[in-house]
């Protein structure tokens, strides 16, 4: 096989999004240092690659993206690499990784590194090319939640960076969500749409889920393991391990695949940074495709868009892996369609004619007499301003990725401050209402007491009036400014 064919075999269909710099988040504390685990401390150290690691790369040969936008990077093939190194070299390389999550070295980790740099090296070559498109998306979502950016390599072991990947148990997408978990994080799944395959929305959902798991365990290795097998299995392993609360302590009691999950994650971080040291060739993007999204509120077939706009249907499908069929169900909910930037202008110019293009053969003819449901651009015309996971995360026109990150952080802070203000305002309102009620009651009572008067009858004396009204003569004199005992019948006298 020629070098070119070999490298072509290592890449896959990926939606083209921008590649921008990200600032590493460091809001989570580093896990407490642990002793490096020796081989004898890890029972049955065996390599059990996840399904994602074993994706059939050959099935993704000769795609439209590969032919048009990927080129060979021969840098690593011209370097002299010493692959016969000892454990101390691997330990040193792992220590030098700029990570918050601890990356320990042991024989299990070494086995996974050997697998990635050996029999799985073709998959690594593919992923090195695919990461140019996906890593910026992962980093943006992780950073928005304040998570360590090294988590961006979880999809390497989950799906081999293939958005269409589906496991034997039904997990799907780059982050391999099961349906119940996906729906818990607001991902839409039905016969026509599967947002687990949407690179952007699934990445934001994964970031929220990982944050939730970390808050539960306060340990990243346990959070990562729980992402793979679920909190229930972690709880069972802890119980069987007699209260151990670290990954290596519960290692023997974890499900078979999960025993290799954290070591595979460490190995993925290693190989994605040190691939050249093992003579693994990569691919690079020659020219990224600038893409944007339009939102439709009517049903439309991707074939209609491709036919009317003169666009490659295969390209549209690859850019929109969340749609199970060619149908975009705009009537059910507003749906975003990603397409190359030049195509958007054409799309908007054609307007309603797109919905009627080939309608008898593709979809039921649609009512095109109204213009109120015309498509609208929802994000800025740039690679970096990809559509977001929720309405609150939509990209504003002309907004850069950095501006968007700043806006999201600002909005999150504003929401938090607003919630706090509302709580305090509610407390203050209740307190003020109570105080006002008490004051009013006291005032009313005081007023009543202050204005109570009785009529003086013929023959009444101050002592008699005081006795009848439960007061004293001195108080009556003081309240009514009486100097002596003279009172007149028919007049009123204050008694309280």
Output the structural class. mainly alpha
SSE run: HHEHHHHHHHHHHHEEEHHEEHHHEHEHHE
End-to-end Cα distance: 111 Å
The whole-angstrom Rg is: 35 Å
What is the tally of helical segments?
21
The averaged pLDDT comes out at 76
Number of domains: 3
Largest sheet: 3 strands, antiparallel
Strand order of the largest sheet: 6-3-7
Q: Beta fraction of the residues?
A: 5-15%
- By oligomeric state, this entry counts as single chain
CATH class of the largest domain: Mainly Alpha
Please give the CATH architecture of the largest domain. Answer: Orthogonal Bundle
State the low-pLDDT regions, or none: 1-45, 363-399
Write down the overall geometry.
Answer: elongated
Look up the CATH topology of the largest domain.
Lysozyme
């Amino acid at each position: 096989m020629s070098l070119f064919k070999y490298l072509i075999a290592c890449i896959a269909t990926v939606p083209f999004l921008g590649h921008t710099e990200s600032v590493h988040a460091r809001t989570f504390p580093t896990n407490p240092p642990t002793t490096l685990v020796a081989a004898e401390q890890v029972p049955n150290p065996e390599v059990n690659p996840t399904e994602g690691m074993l994706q059939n790369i050959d099935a993704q040969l000769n795609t439209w993206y590969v032919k048009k936008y990927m080129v060979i990077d021969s840098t690593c093939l011209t370097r002299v690499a010493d692959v016969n190194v000892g454990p101390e070299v691997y330990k040193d390389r792992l220590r030098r990784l700029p990570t918050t999550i601890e990356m320990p070295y042991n024989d299990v980790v070494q086995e996974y590194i050997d697998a990635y740099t050996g029999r799985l090296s073709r998959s690594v070559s593919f992923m090195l090319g695919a990461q140019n498109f996906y890593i910026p998306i992962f980093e943006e979502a992780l950073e928005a939640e304040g998570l360590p950016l090294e988590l961006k390599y979880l999809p390497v072991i989950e799906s081999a960076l293939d958005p269409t990947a589906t496991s034997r148990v039904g997990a799907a997408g780059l982050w391999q969500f099961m349906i119940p978990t996906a729906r818990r994080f607001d991902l839409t799944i039905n016969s026509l749409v599967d947002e687990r395959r949407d690179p952007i929305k699934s990445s934001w959902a994964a970031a929220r889920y990982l944050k939730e798991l970390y808050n539960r365990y306060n340990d990243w290795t346990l959070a990562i393991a729980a992402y793979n097998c679920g909190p229930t299995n972690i709880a069972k392993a802890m119980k069987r391990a007699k209260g151990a609360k670290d990954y290596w302590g519960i290692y023997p009691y974890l499900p078979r695949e999960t025993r290799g999950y954290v070591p595979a994650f460490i190995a993925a971080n290693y190989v994605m940074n040190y691939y050249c040291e093992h003579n693994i060739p990569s691919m690079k993007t020659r020219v990224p495709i600038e893409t944007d999204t339009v939102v439709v509120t009517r049903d439309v077939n991707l074939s209609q868009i491709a036919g009317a706009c003169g666009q490659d249907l295969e390209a549209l499908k690859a850019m929109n892996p969340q749609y199970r069929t060619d149908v975009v169900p705009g009537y059910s909910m507003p749906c975003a369609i990603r397409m190359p930037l030049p195509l958007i202008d054409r799309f908007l110019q054609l307007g309603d004619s797109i919905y009627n293009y080939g309608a008898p053969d593709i979809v039921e003819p649609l009512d095109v007499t109204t213009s109120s449901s015309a498509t609208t651009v929802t994000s800025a015309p740039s690679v970096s301003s990809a559509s977001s996971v929720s309405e609150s995360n939509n990209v504003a026109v002309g907004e850069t990725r950095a501006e968007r990150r700043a806006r999201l952080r600002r909005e999150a802070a504003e929401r938090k401050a607003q919630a706090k203000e509302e709580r305090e305002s509610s407390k203050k309102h209740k307190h003020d209402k109570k105080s006002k009620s008490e004051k009013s009651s006291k005032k009313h009572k005081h007023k009543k007491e202050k204005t109570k008067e009785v009529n003086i009858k013929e023959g009444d004396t101050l002592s008699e009036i005081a006795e009848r009204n439960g007061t004293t003569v001195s108080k009556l004199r003081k309240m009514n400014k009486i100097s002596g005992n003279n009172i007149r019948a028919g007049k009123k006298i204050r008694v309280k």
